[in-house]
């Protein structure tokens, strides 16, 4: 009997200590909780609004749970803790309590989250970023094109592009225009900005600003075919000086990207080795031209060999020096 009780208490002890394991994640170089560590202005605002929503709803649910337990304890049959009134029919206090709290909660969430939050993190015009912009500030513009299965980032202001790597300056608003050649997926850098759809023949927008220099993981957040697992990109937030040096380095590359070169780049490619390419010259208006071509039926078809034998296709890709 004693042994059984001790075993039960031991399990309770383990359960009680389990939350402390979450604190140990801070000791890891790459914590599994990094998605809850926003480093961008927009991502931080989205996280804050989400936590407001969670706290308010937990307050309602938690209070309801406590009241249920209290009622079960107080009015348990045979315990004589509460008195029974067979003629009771109505209580204004209970009505105010039951209806008032939900009305106040819904009103607060509607104002704080649904209205303010929607405008603050609206990807097309995030006021959390734009309201702090200087009248004559210098935001960065980046055109993003998703292919099967790579990311191309075009910097129109610098007439250059880079594939499978995003680099932006800190303390600077960055505005994205996004489209796709074939895949419908989601552009997502969890620690920096919210998720946005990327669709063929269409243009969407997003924006970010970060004061935290570092490297962050970007992903294609929606399944889009055989190469989805490798459709990743590193996002580097650099100081303005380091960003200028990076731009100068990229502009020294020998790669040029005309519409013909893009058509070759957009052919299906599984980027298993995290290949990064730089293009020092990009044809003007390439982003808009890609949208128009897709709207008029341009396709970059998948080889049947890729879907039937991916390992064989990867060997063929490597033999063609595309790996």
Could you outline the blueprint of secondary structure elements for this entry?
Blueprint (H helix, E strand, L loop, with lengths): L1 H23 L16 H34 L17 H29 L6 H4 L9 E7 L4 E5 L4 E4 L1 E5 L4 E7 L4 E5 L3 E6 L5 E5 L5 E7 L11 E7 L1 H11 L5 E2 L1 H7 L11 E3 L1 E2 L3 H10 L8 H5 L1 H10 L4
Parallel strand pairs: 1-5, 4-10, 11-13
Antiparallel strand pairs: 1-2, 2-3, 3-12, 5-8, 6-7, 6-9, 9-10
Helix pairs in contact: 2-3
Keywords, separated by commas or semicolons:
323 residues, alpha+beta, 2 domains, 6-stranded mixed β-sheet, 5-stranded mixed β-sheet, 13 strands
Concise account of the structure shown:
The protein is α+β, with helices and mostly antiparallel strands. 41% of the residues lie in helices and 20% in strands. The longest helix has 34 residues, at 41-74.
Task: Kindly describe this structure.
Residues 24-29 have low confidence and may be disordered. This protein folds into 2 domains: 2-120, no CATH class; 138-319, Immunoglobulin-like (Sandwich). The radius of gyration is 27 Å and the shape is elongated. 26% of the residues are buried. The protein starts with a helix and ends with a helix. It is an alpha+beta fold and 323 residues long. Helices cover 41% and strands 20% of the residues. Strands 8-5-1-2-3-12 form a 6-stranded mixed sheet. Belongs to the cytochrome c oxidase subunit 2 family. One of its GO terms (molecular function) is copper ion binding. This is COX aromatic rich motif-containing protein.
